[in-house]
Amino acid sequence: MITDFPLSTTPEAKLVPASFAQARLWFLNRLDPERSDYNVTVGWRIEGTLDVALLRDAMQIVVDRHEILRTTFVDVDGAPWQRISASFSTVTTEMNPPPESTRRESVRPVYARIV
Q1: So where are the chain's domains?
Q2: CATH classification code of 14-34+43-114
Q3: Cα(53)–Cα(58) distance, integer angstroms
């Protein structure tokens, strides 16, 4: 059961300075944008019937509740700042399972888009 809790969000995006740790990671990314040492990706294998709408709604509630999931980093005069969006829509991609023999290759383009 998903319960609706009140959220304390601003009606528009806000810009705040990056923390020291965030600025450090931003700097390391500027040195080598191709490195992905701090990126964490995850995939789930779900068996059985999935209520996609319910999953999408649950993910949206999590994104609405946690500002960091709506945060991007922007360069302001050579320094990193956080842009916290007031809203952000989650996106889902539905895939029909391919044959076992071609499964890895068929998932690769989707995985590449999210990494």
Answers
A1: 14-34+43-114
A2: 3.30.559.10
A3: 9
